[in-house]
Fold this sequence. Notes:
Distance between the termini: 30 Å
Number of domains: 2
Strand content: 15-25%
Shape: globular
Radius of gyration: 22 Å
Amino acid sequence: MARLHPWFGDLPRDHEPSWPVRRIREALVRELRDCGTRLDQDQVPLEPFVIARDSYLELFSATRKLLDLVHRAVRLEAATTSGRLAALGIDESQGEYPLFSANDGLEDHFWTAMARPDVVIGPEGPQFIEFNVSGAICGPAETYFFNKVFTEAYGGSEAAPFVGYHAFPARASLFEAICEERGLPKAVALIGSPLDHHAEGSTYFDVEVDYLRSRGFDARFFPPEELPHGLGLPARLDYPLALRYFATADWRDRGVPLDGVRDVLDAGCLLVPPQSSSLLANKKVLGWLSEGRPWMDEEDRALVQRYLPWTRIATDAKVVGPEGLPVRLPHLLKEDRESFVLKRAVGMMGRGVLIGRDTGREQWERAVDQAVATGAHIVQEFVEPAAYPLRISDEQGDGSQWAEVALVLSPCLIGGRPAGCYGRYLTSGLPGVIGEPSSGAMENVILSERLDAPLPSGTAEEAGE
């Protein structure tokens, strides 16, 4: 077994589960059956990714600081929603963002409510390669179920050698704060679609609905066909607060109507996160930060230098390259394709991502030319991810073996609180595009080593103690 990258920590790897392998596998398949995982098809993880306490906390601290920079970058680029759309090269007349509130101030107040960046551990430590800022981020339910199974398999909450933050308590705390601040009743609607992750009749949303009810909320899940009448409209608004558990672009691509959501919004329902959160997820913002903005001070620039790989909006312009020398961007990309990744500025699930070293020269050069022509892509310096030796089941499902995996870490921040860390990986051990259904990526939870002191900045429940 290879030695862990120092950032992961020099932790003992001799903890044995009290459950046999087949029981762990069966429990994971059962608990995650509605999450869209591939656990019923492939070898499953037999342990969480466990990292050093300081490294685990660093993920959330860096996420909070970088999210603030991303927020400031968009907010300071223009004073209005229309101006921000224009700055990001988005044609407002195309109607790609149909769920903005008429109240810009309301949009601004909640647009950082929920965020989940994607992070790889490079030679120098964490590198944030993108930000997902929405309520539809994968991870909260998945990490809940992984943590539940592994905690039980390794001796229970008092004995398991790992601990982590939880998403459901953090989200409930956010909703409680909103209701108290705005004088709203404790009622929240989860608006999503069973088609987003799983089959009709799935219980994917039920686990969070049940948790919210345990915290005193009147909570219910609503698919699009139950809007707006399911919320009591037009006679009344029974749920003045709603979780937007879907991506507008995804629904539009699949022909799911947004009219009911628009009706709910127009009736005064506070949809969290608001549509403006989508602007923070635009990868061009990382290009702005990497290049630098006049308002950024030395501390801001040092933060970017430490945690963001070199990133630029793909244009036919002269830039300062990663080596600090001026160069025309298309020339740089074509001459050194193995050092870069090309990404659509607006995209999800790894769609529209090309890794230069995995792409033929002719295809890469065509993609660069197209990206420069459209202005709808970014280019990012490739980060070689550190491998993590993970214990997984063997092909028969009865025994265990070690696999060197390429890991993407996704710390979740909800209402400014740490809310768990989601992990995806390729069992090939080779870097690749994680997110595409065809990528073969697997999922897991990332937890902290257990120490005598509890995790800070959260209640015992939020910290999984």
